[in-house]
Write a structure and sequence with these properties.
Blueprint: E1 3-8, E2 24-25, E3 28-29, H1 30-41, E4 46-51, H2 56-63, E5 68-71, H3 76-86, E6 91-96, H4 104-117, E7 119-125, E8 130-133, E9 139-143, E10 149-158, H5 159-169, H6 177-183, E11 190-192, H7 203-214
Parallel strand pairs: 1-4, 1-6, 4-5, 7-11
Antiparallel strand pairs: 2-3, 6-10, 7-10, 8-9
Helix pairs in contact: 1-4, 5-6
């Protein structure tokens, strides 16, 4: 089975206040960290980067010729469907560019499990107590955390699952690709993710990521990057 990776970099970065995909991290754009990890994983026949339609040329200058940059949609889900249309791979893994510290081994593990079981979604079982609160912020219920996971990316699926999910979802948008597949009544297999696979959402997150790099707690995959 062939495998492709779509790195989603088409978001507006409104909460971060900066374009977090091209923001500097350890001397390189954030996007290149995920790309380096994907190449180091050696499990992909093709890598796509999904960028805003008006920024594909700029992103291509960052990534060079070894990946294909395509235009994304108005929503995260639309960008995933654009990636699905752009490749004929048997397995498609989807990863948020805003998760720069994904280890190569996690890419490889998700692809392997997706080939076997149809899907593989990285995540972590919840460790904290979870409470539901009302609009005023008053706690009204403690939710058992047993069986609850915090989803990450990559999320890998056999092509036929994504095609069926898109057909059944119509024009709906979802928080991630696992949600689209689950909403279609299709199985989603959770896979143990990594604590360091954090997501840069806010400017504070970007500062924390830079601190981790500066302290030598994370490092980019050792490849000859442009």
């Amino acid at each position: 089975m062939t495998a492709a990776l779509a790195i989603l970099a088409a978001g507006g970065s409104t909460r971060a206040g900066v374009d977090k995909v091209v923001a500097e991290l350890g001397g390189r754009p954030v996007l290149l960290w995920s790309l380096a990890a994907a190449e180091a994983a050696s499990c992909f026949d093709e890598i796509l980067v999904v960028a805003p339609s008006d920024k594909t040329a700029a992103v291509a200058k960052i990534t060079g010729t070894r990946v294909r940059v395509i235009a994304g949609g108005a929503t995260r889900t639309a960008s995933s469907w654009a990636a699905l249309d752009a490749t004929s791979a048997d397995v498609l893994a989807i990863h948020d560019a805003a998760r720069p510290f994904v280890p190569p081994s996690l890419f490889a593990r998700c692809v392997e499990i997706a080939r076997e079981k149809g899907s593989a979604v990285a995540g972590l079982p919840l460790a904290d107590t979870v409470r539901r609160a009302n609009e005023a912020g008053a706690a009204v219920e403690e939710v058992t955390r047993e069986g609850l996971w915090s989803a990450q990316t990559p999320q890998a699926f056999r092509r036929e699952l994504l095609l069926r999910a898109r057909e059944r979802s119509g024009d709906r948008s979802f928080s991630d690709d696992a949600a689209a597949v689950a909403a279609a009544g299709l199985p989603v297999q959770m896979v143990m993710g990594e604590r360091r696979n954090l997501k840069i959402t806010t400017l504070e997150d970007l500062g924390y990521a830079r601190e981790l790099v500066d302290k030598g707690l994370v490092a980019i995959a050792a490849l000859q990057l442009r």
